């Protein structure tokens, strides 16, 4: 595991706020010359501390108004059955996040779709076609209170 010093952490904080910062802008904020800042960012990327850069899209502006958390219980818990479910679920565009969880359910999905009709189609035509699903439980998000992408480092 890579050891992060205070400069690495400061770089991560700035890039989480604005991934568009150039090396020059970042070096100005850190009071360092551009070359060491560039080398540190590349090292953080190479080591996998920085996984990638994305544009965060306002889902409502692109007509993806419905967010659903769907709990999944599998029929069979054998390793291959679970692995097959994972291979299939990651292929579904509507599934934004998937977590293997403990408790009454095996997986928790975060699903983003346009509306209830689209969710019903997703549930009936895509999710129900996966053979190892024993049961599902859907929770519909009424309003999003906090959705952060930044980690405290």
TrEMBL record:
It comes from Arcicella rigui. This is Lrp/AsnC family transcriptional regulator. It comes from the Bacteria. CDD domains: HTH_ARSR. Gene3D superfamilies: 3.30.70.920, Winged helix-like DNA-binding domain superfamily/Winged helix DNA-binding domain. Keywords: DNA-binding, Transcription, Transcription regulation. Residues 4-67 form the HTH asnC-type domain. The keyword Nucleotide-binding does not apply. SMART domains: HTH_ASNC (SM00344).
